[in-house]
Design goal:
The protein has twelve helices and 15 strands. With 356 residues, the protein is of the alpha/beta class. It folds into two domains: 115 residues, 3-Layer(aba) Sandwich (Rossmann fold); 202 residues, Dihydrodipicolinate Reductase, domain 2 (2-Layer Sandwich). It binds nicotinamide-adenine-dinucleotide.
């Protein structure tokens, strides 16, 4: 089986390398509308073309990765599904919820493999939390808080800054950080409320900040605080370790996860995962810090950004004729929360979520 990668910018080039180096595929071909990207891919020794029909009509191409900018996801995914291919599409599924629904419906109607790139579900930082929850070490999760502060690294002119091409900041950046608590808590969301201040970044059409709260049917609540501007602008030596440089310069990406029997915390920039166990004593409730995990910088990608592991899993599953580990229908539920967060920010109202 061969793979195709549609959209070979930053993300697509990485997927091309995974496909080429995994030892499981007969080849990989890239496609982009930008001639500069085709030339760059060829320079790096990849096969790349502007002939999309040629790729989709090739029966040897069994799996298609859609890694173009968000506005191109729908047409590319629909074309690949109509050609009968297994498809992986980067998050957000699409720039509108209606488009996302049409795409998921189309894949299901055709009985085709369709998975969305929520790669944090493969990253050790977050699978460790999921394993602790599944083992009952935290008890039912009742409360999660996420703080995400970063620099403005999209830069002027990016497709990410426009609503028509990016679809909004929540889908583009924060969909991961809503997908995780939804995965951990495992209960449907009933209410979503976002409040946002006026932007600090003057040239964004999308928002640069959110305080968003989710209430789950089991009573749990989840909060997400985001701001994009504060962390120091990265202008360093690309050979220097970016995490170490940014850990104390205003960047933050951490979770607190509180259950009835214990709690856990993750911190990307300080490379930490912690766990506490709750207990009882004659004087009151106790908490004992029982685990403190860190990792080696060489394992950074595997711990907090495991697109490589995700895409290998997808290739193996398609080759074995297995369904997606995380079906697109589940990712669509996260997209509903993304859309509700933006709608709440627009209207100022709490959004009540209808059951799926
Ligand atoms: N899962 C993650 O953590 C993660 C991280 C980064 C990016 N992404 C996603 O990956 C996708 C690409 O992001 P990126 O950082 O590579 O962006 P990028 O700007 O580096 O690359 C996007 C590429 O898409 C191409 N393109 C645009 N329209 C196209 C079309 N109609 N057909 C073919 N190619 C087209 C552009 O020419 C460009 O080369 C986005 O959906 C983004 O949200 C996900």
């Amino acid at each position: 089986m061969k793979a195709a990668v549609l959209g070979i910018g930053g993300m697509g080039m990485g997927v091309m390398a995974t496909c080429r180096d995994c030892g499981r595929l007969a080849g990989v071909v890239g496609y982009d509308i930008a001639g500069t990207q085709i030339a760059l891919a060829c320079e790096r020794g990849f096969v790349a073309t502007t002939d999309l029909d040629g790729i989709l009509n090739d029966p040897a191409v069994g799996v298609v990765f859609v890694t173009a900018s968000n506005n191109a996801h729908k047409p590319l995914v629909m074309a690949a599904l109509r050609a009968g291919k297994a498809v992986m599409c980067e998050k957000p599924i699409a720039t509108t919820l209606e488009d996302a629904r049409e795409m998921v419906d189309e894949a299901e109607r055709r009985g085709l493999f369709f998975q969305i790139g929520f790669e944090l579900r493969y990253s050790k930082l977050y699978t460790t939390i999921k394993n602790w929850i599944d083992q009952g070490l935290l008890g039912p999760v009742m409360n999660t808080q996420c703080t995400y502060i970063c620099s403005e690294f999209h830069n002027k002119g990016s497709w990410r800054n426009r609503l028509s091409t990016g679809g909004g900041m929540f889908g583009e950046k924060l969909s991961h950080y809503v997908d995780l608590p939804r995965w951990w808590i495992g209960s449907p969301v009933t209410e979503v409320h976002s409040v946002c201040a006026p932007n600090v970044v003057p040239y964004y059409e999308v928002r640069d900040n959110y305080h968003t709260v989710y209430r789950f049917a089991n009573g749990a609540v989840s909060e997400l605080t985001f701001h994009m501007a504060v962390g120091e602008t990265f202008a360093g030596d690309p050979l220097r370790d970016q995490l170490d440089q940014q850990k104390d310069d205003g960047h933050a990406l951490r979770y607190l996860i509180v259950g009835t029997r214990g709690a856990a915390a993750t911190d990307v920039f300080f490379r930490r995962i912690k766990r506490w166990e709750f207990g009882d004593s004659p004087t009151g409730m106790t908490s004992k810090w029982v685990e403190d995990i860190t990792w080696n910088p060489k394992d950074d990608q595997e711990y907090y950004h495991n697109t490589h592991g995700q895409n290998l899993d997808i290739i193996c599953r398609v080759l074995a004729g297995q369904p997606p580990r995380h079906p697109a229908r589940d990712a669509y539920e996260t997209m509903r929360l993304v859309e509700a967060a933006e709608r709440s920010a627009d209207s100022g109202n709490i959004q009540q979520m209808a059951a799926m």
